[in-house]
Design a protein that fits this description.
Strand content: 15-25%
Shape: globular
Helix content: 10-25%
Bound molecules: dioxothiomolybdenum(VI) ion
Oligomer: single chain
Number of strands: 27
Structural class: alpha+beta
Number of helices: 18
Largest sheet: 7 strands, mixed
Distance between the termini: 66 Å
Strand order of the largest sheet: 3-5-1-12-9-10-11
Radius of gyration: 27 Å
Length: 754
């Protein structure tokens, strides 16, 4: 057997290569870095959500022991407003730099910053700063009506005609439809809550700034900070070696990042700023609350004739983050008449931002719920309704799908779940004294590539190195890069060194949009090919080499060995031997790949697909609802690491259980504060809430995305799950819940109570 076949690690379950570092505590997270003279910063949070700072009394705080400075608008120094570039350049969702003026537009907005020798001293000083406000009533109204707002949304999310979509005559077709559904679905604000808190440690060395930050996008962070401090990009370095998860909250810089840097600049010392959990609820993004009206028109046989999706989402007073709920609406089902449109409602809240499956996750909750309700209305099986409306092409763009196996997802899901045994009558299915509810829903998530660059080395000790300035946010990117390096270099996984998380490395992709894996593959492969090319040149030009008389075209490289193509691998020489013979430590190659995300006129519609089948148990005596069983099928192209892949989908389903049953951030109507801004009051699904999860991958390569056909798996697993759970809940209890999360009060309305 050729060595390469033996060693191919692509598509095989691989434990995390960084696992030992993590479990032994050697992995250095952003806040694990300490420096001589390090100072600690704690922000002062506004206790109003709307108004102005009239007076800051810092006198008492300044005199406290260990305090170095209390910074505010008048002494922090200049922080420039960053300017968004084209597409994905310079993204900073909260555009107002900290301390820009005296206005306060959300609760928890930073109004001052205490810096001291210890965290405790800084916290005490921050608490001692007295702030006088001109306080106005905040608007945190939960009923969302679109503002009359002519501002155009600028978005990077793919084809322009996807932002608002229209075809045919949706109003006329709806009016004439024999069967109609018109319902409004509400999703609450949710907060990301990665366990690792956000934090920045800033160090200046003359005109050079280094920032340790747990970023999902270090190059964007670098570019935005360079703008904020008026520096060339080269003067800013961002380091993110490990991330304790992000879910989108760490994609873009928040105001604490420039604050740490500005304080370090003013004091000439390294400054560390770690957010409290409460601060992450206030000023580090959240999923926007949405209110979505879905209108479906259908024939009695179940063919859709009209689909309208009108959604409104909340945004902050100053920022225009777009929650793209209609992302999947325009292509998921075949329907000749369709309209997707949105409105926005300004509120006195910190700006919403991307949260796992932004847009599509709340959007698909609404549209998939509507499909389930329509199926019940038509007395058609919900799987069958979806089969009946399967599109042949992406009807919104008039282009083919690169690879869509949605019907197979439904088939595999139904079989594994045992869906054919479903009795559609409410409350009719029972097991062990519990009522069972069965529900399902479909899923979709965009697949595309960010631009990426990488470097690959082959070294004289028989190891390879893969360098790419992307991040591993806990999803397994270290392992993916090692797998790619091992595959190309023909060495075992443990002979590959992976370097990521540093802007001194080749510019890697954002860890977002489920696009990191798909983006790094072509860049790493191109870099490896260059390194191999360099190796072949070494082989043919080194005196005394076995290949000295050959031309590079006559040679091949496989399984770590160079050999003459015509002779086959038998007489091959390992790259380490060749390099040592040539007295070279290494050969190196750089490669890059272009973005496909944001293409305005794509040739193919590239998405991942999937579905969830859910069983809930309902105990009417005590109104107790549990998610008891979930079968998930995912069509996400080729799965590079099924172990980490499965882990991603399971994690997303856990988050979906939280979305359906538990998670919501609630704002106090009096002062605008997120009330449940801690992990005791913000309830997430934990192990006790989660049954055994059954995940299946279809594993059809999508060659439009990259050579290996890998799309992405970070977000697709959260799409649709909430709709499947609410459908199962309805099947068990007879209660339709159209506002998430499902609350005990909702369930107490069930007539199926003992
Ligand atoms: Mo994801 S919301 O792109 O981290």
């Amino acid at each position: 057997m050729p060595e390469s076949a033996q060693m191919s690690v692509i598509g095989k379950p691989q434990p995390r290569v960084d696992g030992p570092l993590k479990v032994s505590g050697l992995a250095m997270y952003a806040t694990d870095h300490h420096f001589p003279g390090l100072l600690h910063a704690v922000p002062v949070e506004a206790t109003i959500a709307n108004g102005r700072v009239l007076k800051l009394d810092t006198a008492a705080a300044e005199k406290m022991p260990g305090v170095r400075a209390i910074f505010h608008r008048r002494n922090i120094g200049k922080i420039f407003r960053s300017v968004k570039g084209k597409g994905f350049e310079n993204i900073c969702i909260e555009r107002r730099p900290p301390f820009e003026d005296d206005d306060v537009s959300y609760y928890g907005q930073y109004v001052a910053l205490a810096v001291a020798d210890t965290f405790e001293a800084a916290k005490a000083a921050a608490d001692a700063v007295l702030v006088t406000y001109d306080k106005q009533k905040p608007n945190v109204e939960t009923d969302l009506k679109a503002d009359n707002d002519p501002e155009v949304v600028e978005t990077s999310y793919g084809p322009e005609n996807r932002l608002q979509s229209e075809r045919g005559d949706p109003d006329g077709a709806f009016a004439n439809a024999p069967v109609k559904l018109d319902q409004t679905f509400v999703t609450p604000s949710e907060t990301h809550n990665p366990i690792e808190l956000q934090a920045a440690t800033a160090i200046w060395d003359g005109p050079n700034l280094t920032l340790y930050e747990e970023s999902q996008s270090i190059f964007n962070m670098r570019d935005v900070l360079a703008q904020m401090f008026g520096l060339p990009k080269e003067n800013v370095r961002v380091i993110t070696k490990f991330v304790g998860s992000g879910f989108g909250s760490k994609l873009w810089p928040w105001t604490h990042c420039p604050l740490a840097a500005a304080a370090a600049r003013q004091l000439g010392k390294p400054v560390k700023l770690v957010l409290s959990r409460r601060m992450t609820f206030q000023s580090a993004g959240h999923r926007a609350r949405t209110q979505q009206r879905v209108r479906l028109g259908a024939t009695p046989e179940g063919k859709l004739v009209s689909l309208q999706h009108d959604y409104v989402y909340q945004r902050s007073m100053l920022d225009d983050y777009h929650e793209n709920c209609g992302e999947a609406t325009a292509f998921q089902y075949s329907v000749p008449n369709l309209r997707v449109q949105f409105g926005r409602a300004k509120r006195n809240i910190g700006t919403p931002s991307d949260m796992r499956g932004p847009g599509a996750v709340p959007g698909l909750y609404a549209t998939e719920s509507a499909m389930n309700e329509l199926a019940d209305q038509l007395k058609i099986d919900p799987v069958q309704l979806r089969v009946l409306n399967e599109p042949k092409i992406d009807e919104s763009l008039g282009i083919p799908f690169s690879s869509r196996h949605y019907l197979e997802c439904l088939k595999v899901g139904a079989e594994n779940f045992g869906w054919s045994k479903r009795n559609s009558e409410i409350g009719s299915m029972k097991r062990d004294g519990l009522i069972l509810g069965w529900g399902m829903a479909g899923a979709a998530w965009i697949a595309a590539r960010f631009p990426a660059q990488a470097n690959v080395q082959l070294r004289d000790d028989g190891t390879a190195r893969v360098a790419c300035g992307t991040q591993d946010i806990g999803t397994g990117t270290y392992t993916i890069l090692a797998q790619l390096g091992a595959d190309k270099a023909g060495v075992p996984l443990d002979k590959v060194e992976v370097a990521l998380g540093d802007t001194t490395l080749p510019e890697g992709p954002t860890s977002g949009g489920s696009m990191a894996t798909g983006s790094v593959i072509p860049a790493v492969f191109a870099a490896a090919d260059k390194a191999i090319e360099a190796l072949l040149t070494v082989a043919t030009t080194t005196t005394g080499s076995a290949f000295e008389k050959r031309k590079a075209e006559e040679l091949a490289f496989e399984g770590g060995r160079v050999f003459v193509k015509a002779n086959g691998p038998a007489g091959g020489v390992h790259f380490a031997d060749l390099l040592r013979h040539a007295n070279l430590r290494l050969v190196t190659g750089s490669g890059k790949s272009e973005a496909t995300f944001g293409e305005k006129k794509p040739k193919f519609s590239t998405h991942s697909f999937g579905c969830h089948f859910v069983e809930v148990t309902w105990q009417p005596e005590i109104a107790r609802l549990r998610v008891n069983r979930v079968v998930t099928v995912i069509d996400a192209g080729r799965i590079i690491n099924p172990l980490a892949g499965r882990n991603q989908i399971e994690g997303a389903v856990v988050m979906g259980i939280g979305m359906a049953l538990l998670e919501h951030t609630t704002y106090d109507p009096q002062n605008g504060a997120p009330i449940n801004s801690n992990l005791a009051d913000y309830i997430m699904a934990v192990n006790a809430d989660v049954p055994k999860l059954d995940v299946h991958f279809l594993d059809y390569p999508d060659k439009e995305i990259n050579q290996l056909g890998a799309r992405g798996i970070g977000e697709i697993g959260l799409a649709g799950i909430a709709a499947a759970i609410t459908a199962a809940t309805h099947h068990a209890t007879g209660i339709r819940v159209r506002e998430l999360p499902i609350k005990i009060e909702d369930l107490l309305k069930s007539s199926i109570l003992a």
